[in-house]
Design goal:
mainly beta; single chain; about 190 residues
Length: about 190
């Protein structure tokens, strides 16, 4: 890779099954898109790309991320939708600049309580997973503006939802709700 001035790399919709470890040599890279490939494993060296701000790995075959990715502390957008995740990788909880986190269309059965460590999240998408309930800690996700929980198996939302007063979009379609909490009226910015 003699492209050390490259800032954006889009390799969407190819047949890539492996990211070469020497991707770490792309020292100026801030945006990397590898959607719709055949990637099953992310090399630990990708964690050395600490200047990445945007990383999209949608539509691959990922089940985990290397712990070295916790070094990506300025990453603001991470999309991991349409993979095979059954949990949220631990490295994500160290990415404290994340604003956008998309995990829709995976197989995650439990909403991760550690997400409250991400104090800048504004857009969180867990649609089309296997969620059945939400933990009380969602009340600490006060920076959220968009929260997608559609296409899960959630039956109720607790009164803690009232603390998400910055919400502009709350997607709850295709769940198992019979009623919504009155506290939802506290979310005055909902459109």
């Amino acid at each position: 890779w003699e492209l050390n001035v490259l800032r954006t790399l889009n390799l969407d919709h190819n047949q890539i099954d492996e990211i070469p470890g020497d991707i770490e040599k792309l020292s100026s890279l801030t945006k990397l898109r590898l959607d719709a490939n055949n990637i099953e494993v992310i090399p630990p060296e990708l964690g050395n790309r600490t200047n990445l701000k945007y990383l999209s790995l949608d539509k691959n075959n990922l089940v985990d991320l290397p712990l070295t990715m916790k070094r990506m502390v300025i990453l603001s957008t991470l999309t991991l939708s349409r993979n095979a995740f059954t949990f949220v990788p631990k490295c994500i909880f160290s990415m404290n600049k994340l604003k956008v986190l998309h995990f829709h269309h995976n197989e995650i059965p439990v909403f991760p309580t550690e997400l409250d460590k991400l104090k800048h999240l504004t857009d969180l998408n867990f649609g089309a997973n296997l969620l059945t309930k939400l933990p009380d800690m969602i009340s600490r996700l006060v920076t959220l503006k968009k929260f997608d929980l559609s296409k899960n198996e959630i039956q109720t939302i607790g009164p803690e939802i009232k603390k998400l007063t910055n919400l502009e979009l709350l997607a709850l379609s295709y769940n198992l709700f019979q009623a919504l909490p009155e506290e939802l009226s506290a979310c005055v910015k909902l459109q």
